[in-house]
Amino acid sequence: MTKDILTIKGLNAGYGAVPVLFDLDLTVREGEIVSMVGSNGAGKTTLLRAISRIIPATGTMTFDGEDLLPLKPEGAFSRGLVQVPEGRQLFGHMTVEENMMMGANRRRDGGVAESFERVYALFPKMKERRRQLAGNMSGGEQQMCAMARALMANPKLLVIDEMSLGLAPVIVDDLLAILTDIRAQGLTVLLVEQDVFAAFSVADRAYVMETGRIVREGPISELANDPAVRDAYLGAEH
Amino acid sequence: MVLAQILLNGILLGGLYGLMALGMALVWGVLNIVNLSHGALIMLGGYVVYYLFTIGGIDPFVALPIAMLVMFAVGFLLQYYLLNLVVRSKMLNTLLITFGLDVVLTYLAQLTFSADFRTINPPYAGANFALFGLTVPSVRLAAFVVAIVLAAALWFLLHRMALGRAIRATAQNLVAARLYGVNPSVLYAVTFGIGTALAGAAGGLYGMIANLTPYIGASLTAKSFVIAIIGGLSNPFYVIFGGIFVGIAESLTALYIGPTYSDVISFGLLVVVLVLRPNRTLRTS
Ligand SMILES: Nc1ncnc2c1ncn2[C@@H]1O[C@H](COP(=O)(O)OP(=O)(O)OP(=O)(O)O)[C@@H](O)[C@H]1O
Ligand SMILES: [Mg+2]
Q1: How many independent structural domains does chain A possess?
Q2: Phi-psi region for residue A24, left (φ > 0), alpha (ψ -120 to 50) or beta?
Q3: B134-137 and A4-15: which strand pairing?
Q4: Chain B within 8 Å of A91 (Cβ-Cβ)?
Q5: Of the candidate ranges A170-174, B113-117, B259-263, the one whose mean pLDDT is the lowest
Q6: CATH no. for residue A22?
Q7: Can you tell me the distance from the alpha carbon of A103 to that of A152, in angstroms, rounded to the nearest whole number?
């Protein structure tokens, strides 16, 4: 009954002649947190680049009922497909507020002031730091700033790449709690993570990727008890 | 008194120098292109104002904004169809292609405008007034004011407007800019267009206080390059200060050492600056 916001079928993508993703299927439904896990070099970031239309791809990709493949990155962005990239990629010499304004770059709906309030309510620290240069903040603050910037675009689907990378566990927990809040407000999230524990703690469903292919998928309750997944990704911590 | 007059002349001329360098610094900082055809674009802007004045009968200061629009279009098209091929590629590629462009523009200007000297000579060209015992040439003062106003406008664009924010964002992080709705080819073309429009304004003002020929480009490129390095690429007002610095230095050189050396002095200053501040950052922010 909930509709699909992102549907991917038979996706192939890579860099020049080097294929990275093979015949990949993925669905994200409205209101879900879906997570994509997999080890280094599995192709997670490559998938997100294909979704955001940064790299060419073949197959079918539908976003909110519209064919995603012919769109340019700015087209995907202005339709509400918004990415928090790996490594945050902030505009380091701009203030937190200016970074957030870049998130609202393409909005013409007059709701930017209201978004500022809503996002500052989620990230009170960003309100305190709004005049600070983004490049001068700690890793956790930078991740918050990157998420705040993305939320300013009023996304239909928020795609996050390696949210937890390089952050202390307490900060990761904070961010996960915020993600849950954001979802409660109705936002759909695709969360790419190497930290399977973190990902599974907030997601409804997950996909497991290995060398460019989906090898497992299902609800978290199922995957967390799947012996293969436990051995490969949750083993050390169980 | 002579010294004060010389300083005043240097400051007024330096404002114009700063304006010349403004577009070069913008393009360098955002696109990482050291535009060797920048002086030729200044020259072109000078001719646009010249013809608007002589054929169109438009006052040269009124013609400036028109020339800026024309030059914006020229710059936009050059970047979109030609220079986007080399943007963010190796420095040598950008130097080669803009050097080629300089040669082509100079040659076309010679064919179209002939090699004769031209001056934009409105009725008030020689006007001046006295202030504290100094002679203030009106046109040079106006040129100085225009330079300051345009630097302020550029600052406002970059720091207070959505377009400028996108320009700075793209200079700082191309990956993120693309993910956040910026189309780099268009943004680069707009940026180069703005740089070219500024060059055009500088050319129009230059034509009111010096001779226009198709060959002025190379030395103006060199001067703009030196000023961009002295002023840095981060703040339009620093570029104007850089221009004023060079303007004063040139005037003093002409007075104390001899007028023939005033062209050499800007490179002397460049060497001094590079020695004193070798790791001066040229990043835009
Ligand atoms: N720009 C690029 N050009 C060529 N190959 C690339 C490029 N980026 C990534 N690759 C290759 O594509 C494959 C998948 O990389 P990708 O970054 O998508 O993996 P990942 O799952 O995101 O890994 P990580 O968990 O380390 O972020 C790797 O083999 C990588 O070497
Ligand atoms: Mg990755």
Answers
A1: 1
A2: beta
A3: unpaired
A4: yes
A5: B259-263
A6: 3.40.50.300
A7: 5
Q: Which residue of B has its CA nearest to A77?
A: B181
Number of helices followed by number of strands (H, E) in chain A: 10, 10
Range of the domain at A224: 1-71+194-238
SS3 of A156, please? coil
Q: Which ligand is nearest to the CA of A161?
A: 2
Q: What's the whole-number mean pLDDT along residues A108-113?
A: 91
The DSSP code sequence of A100-138 is HHHHTTT--SS-HHHHHHHHHHH-HHHHHTTTSBGGGS-
**Residues on chain B bordering chain A, Cβ-to-Cβ distance under 8 angstroms:** 162, 165-166, 168-169, 172-173, 175-183, 283, 285
Atom of ligand 1 nearest to the CA of A14: 12
- Specify if A201 maps to a domain: yes
Beta strands in chain B (DSSP E): 128-131, 134-137
**Which domains occur in chain B, in start order?**
2-276 (1.10.3470)
Kindly report the nearest CA distance between residue A1 and chain B, in angstroms: 31
CA nearest A150 in B: which residue?
B180
Report pLDDT digits (tens) over A119-139. 999 999 999 999 999 999 999
pLDDT digits over B248-278, tens only? 999 998 888 877 777 788 778 878 877 776 5
Q: How far is B124 from chain A (nearest CA, A)?
A: 45
Which of chain A's residues have a Cβ under 8 Å away from the Cβ of B164?
none
Give the number of the ligand closest to the Cα of residue A42. Answer: 1
Instruction: Burial-class residue A69 by CB neighbours within 10 Å (0-12, 13-18, 19+).
Output: middle
Own/partner contacts of A141-144, CB < 8 Å, gap of 24 or more, are A142/A88, A142/A90, A143/A88, A143/A167, A143/A171, A143/A175, A144/A175
CA angle at residue A177 from A34 to A232, to 5 degrees?
A: 50
Q: Average pLDDT over chain A, rounded to whole?
A: 93
Give the number of the atom of ligand 1 that is nearest the alpha carbon of residue A43. Answer: 18
In a domain, A221, yes or no: yes
Centroid of ligand 1 to alpha carbon of B88 (angstroms): 22
ipTM, interface predicted TM-score of the complex: 0.93
| Overall average pLDDT of the A23-45 stretch | 95
A219 belongs to a structural domain: yes
